[in-house]
Amino acid sequence: MQMVRMKTNAHSMPTMTGLYIHIPICVSRCRYCDFYKLTPNEWDHVDLFLQCLEIELRRLPAGFAPDTVFVGGGTPTALEPRELATLFDCIHGSVNLTNGIEFSSEANPGTLTPDKLSIMKEGGVNRVSIGVQSFNDKALRLLGRIHQGDGAIEGFQMLREAGFGNVNIDLIQSIPGMAPAEVLADARRVVELEPEHISYYNLIYEPDTPLTHDRDAGRIVPPGDDEEADNYFAVKALLEGAGYGHYETSNFCKPERECRHNLLYWQAGEYFGCGPAAHSHWNGARFGNIRDVQTYCDRLLKNENPFDEMERLSPEEKARETLVMGLRLMEGVDLAGFEELTGFRVDELCGEAVEHLLAEGLLQRSGRRLALAQTALFIGNSVFSELV
Ligand SMILES: C[S@@+](CC[C@H](N)C(=O)[O-])C[C@H]1O[C@@H](n2cnc3c(N)ncnc32)[C@H](O)[C@@H]1O
Ligand code: SF4
Question: What is the CATH number of domain 17-266?
């Protein structure tokens, strides 16, 4: 697998760095999503947001030269062409973007136009992550998406026509009402498109979203655990058979096409997050920006910090978190490298829990690596909860 470039300092801590930029705008609200975003009916001051984002970017440490940039949301491609051009101008004017960095942007197929895509390309974007979720129109209606299956395919083709050679497709699994054959049809359709990367997320019922209300009221019935697991392993086999390596619990890619920005999160790299609700992890501290775009703007205009949470993890907490994040990767955690990075041995930190999980067949150890066992892939979160 492609490893992110890890420079090390005198303390052998990684100094691979990333920049995340959150665009808090969506055309409409999908029924399952609780990412921070507003629709134009709710807040229509994009120019003010971009002005304040620029103030925040200019507050980053002088000379900050991230190894990866990820523009996410919300929906970056919900911005108008003029607004997108301003966004990229302010990124380039504030951040030192060196050659060869991975520069990703998220995109919603219902918002793409050739002129937006050429502005993104000129702005340096070299990887696009497109939210497809499913190609099945019935499922897309249930999820409240603004596009149909054909629109998702057209959006993907538009990306190729614009010259993007590194594209991720987001799919969601366990959508209520989809028969196993329909789940596999989605997986076959994605393989036919030949994206470089596929994120295959399990549907999360976020608190207080319309989809969760539907489930709680019995209007929709999620698939049972066995059916979910069968679908997951059938899709995994299909994608692997088509040449996609399974490198993280929810992520598959063609050789050397791992998402370097996400690897940074999973390999304990440090990053700044800009924009409302964005999180940063820098110098051992975690910051969370306020989840309200108007207050975010008000604070930056007064030259105040936009974050309202700050937490410094103890070295032990940081080590546990590094272990759990690393176990999301299929290659698992290199035990010697972990000790060098964190100063803790895994057996000191949580030896008993690890032995128990090994005995249960949920973790596996081979040589100097500890990894999730295949049987635990689908229940990774419950394994991780025993280790933190
Ligand atoms: C910011 S969106 C991607 C770009 C664009 N906003 C869109 O939706 O097309 C990030 C991705 O998170 C995933 N996602 C959001 N909420 C989710 C949930 N409740 N369960 C599973 N996946 C979710 C979707 O796959 C979505 O494509
Ligand atoms: S899934 Fe994407 S488009 Fe839908 S509400 Fe969430 S961020 Fe917006």
Answer: 3.80.30.20
Q: From the CB of residue 359, how many other CB atoms can be counted at a distance below 10 Å? A: 9
For ligand 1, what atom is nearest to the CA of residue 131?
9
CATH 1.10.10.920 fits 315-385, yes or no: yes
Taking the domains of the chain in order of start, what are their residue ranges? 17-266, 315-385
Ligand 1 atom, smallest distance to 110 CA? 9
- Cβ contacts of 374-380, under 8 Å, gap ≥ 24: 377/232, 377/236, 377/249, 378/228, 378/229, 378/232, 378/233, 380/249, 380/327, 380/328
For the cut 50, the answer to whether the pLDDT of residue 290 exceeds it is yes
Nearest atom (ligand 1) to Cα of 171: 25
Residue 167 parent element (H or E): strand 167-173
Per residue in 20-62, pLDDT tens? Answer: 999 999 999 999 999 999 999 999 999 999 999 999 999 999 9
Strand order in the sheet with 369-372: 333-334, 369-372, 363-366
328-384 pLDDT, tens digit each: 999 999 999 999 999 999 999 999 999 999 999 999 999 999 999 998 988 888 888
Q: Which two tokens stand for residue 312?
A: 């410094």
What's the gap in Å between 80 CA and the centre of ligand 1? 21
Q: Indicate the top mutation candidate among 79, 116, 133, 206 to test ligand 1's pocket, ranked by most ligand atoms within 8 A of CB.
A: 133
With contact defined as beta carbons under 8 Å apart, do 101 and 137 qualify? no
CB of residue 77 inside a 6 A radius of ligand 2: no
User: Could you tell me if residue 268 is left (phi over 0), alpha (psi between -120 and 50 degrees) or otherwise beta?
Assistant: left
